[in-house]
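Shipment paperwork, digital attachment
Item: protein structure file
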Amino acid sequence: MRYELKAIAPGGQVESLEFQASDEAAMVKSLEGRGYTVLSVRGKRALNAPWRRARDRFPVALFSQELRALVGAGLPLVEAIETLGQKEKQDSVRAILARIVALLREGQPLSTALEEFPQAFSPLYVATVKAAEKTSDLAPALGRYVAYSNQLDAVRKRMVNASIYPALLMAVGSLVGLFLLLYVVPRFGHIYQERGGDLPLFSRLLLAWGQAIDQHGAAAVGVLVALIVLGIHFARRDNVRRALGDALWRLPSIGERLKMYQLARFYRTIGMLLRGGMPLPRALDMGAELLHPLLRDRLVLANASIREGRGVSASLEAQGLVTPVALRMLAVGEKSGNMGDMLEQVAAFHDEELARWVDWFTRLFEPILMAVIGLVIGAIVVLMYMPIFELAGNLQ
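Attachment content:
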């Protein structure tokens, strides 16, 4: 959710800020930890279009890729970010880059400057930069983050592409059904109105619906629009999304795949952080926010076990955070001391497995969906034309 707030900055001036955060308390705590005194907080739930939100989002991957190229070419960090700000056309992005440059000129490290903008840079990104500052390898760290982001985007695009055709089928089927129920059925109601007693039961019910729509069409359309608006409103609420997510997690097959998807993303994140030089317990803490609350609680117990000296693979296995393949590969990574690369290989393996399952599911779901839509539309048409069939039979 997006929040608008007023706060006293560490320098004493009052600033108006806007942040994107999942929780108001966590946002306030983060700001107070950086020296701000929060005066007021107001939630902002504007119904922005998806393309508007995408346009306003800070392009972290592109910023990382361009900054890596400039720093790798030998430009100082401040000059590199200044160059990116000069070429930027979007005002909000240019303002963020200008503020980062100002903080760098004051002597702040880049990670501290990035923490000023939690709506743009995630804690994971800030931790990646902070780990790179300790080893003075910012360009390679940015390269690892770009590769990590591209791999996650590839998995996400596979799932989106697989859901496009079923979504189009459902949309077209719904539109055809609404057209029949709201326009065609009322017209047939006028034709059969005089001989309604001779119609079959389901045809009478359908034509009664048509007559009701014909008499109260405006009210019916208003109710339909209100239901759509309410559906969109509730779909945007965090608690509704969590409830839907919990319901999906309880489904046997889909819940297992959702767990695999989250674990694959978790393995890839931990692997990237380990390759950047971050200690394993700290990396596990950073990756916890990527997991479902149920898995997150298990990870806390596993991390505590690791801190006590138990093996990584054994600790994760005890809490159900590994698959059989991941368990064997993590055990090999522990022995070879190459845990970061091994975690990324585990993530790649499960990404491919998940892609095959999504492909199989869509191939099975699409014909079933087409059959259901065809049966519903066909039933409506048959019920409308059944009196004509009976009349033709009587004439013969």
